[in-house]
Specification:
The chain is α+β, with helices and mostly antiparallel strands. It contains three helices and three strands. Helix content is 35%, strand content 10%.
């Protein structure tokens, strides 16, 4: 899991999907709401390094913009 400076949660560095916790918080999400959002994102995560070998062909943020 990676929480980025822009408030997006990335559950897989090789995947393109992100969940905006910032937008949820700005919309008034409670701690419980955030727990549910994060839990749902983690449950959608693929089991292992999904997409690792196809990363060159997918639209994804460059690692340098993700931080780490």
């Amino acid at each position: 899991l990676r929480l980025m400076a822009d408030g997006n949660l990335k559950v897989c560095l090789f995947g393109a999907s992100e969940v905006s916790l910032r937008d949820a918080m700005r919309g008034g999400a409670t701690d419980e709401d955030l727990r549910l959002i994060i839990g749902a994102a983690v449950r959608r995560k693929k089991a292992k390094h999904a997409g690792m070998f196809e990363i060159a062909a997918t639209q994804n943020r460059p690692m340098i913009t993700i931080g780490g």
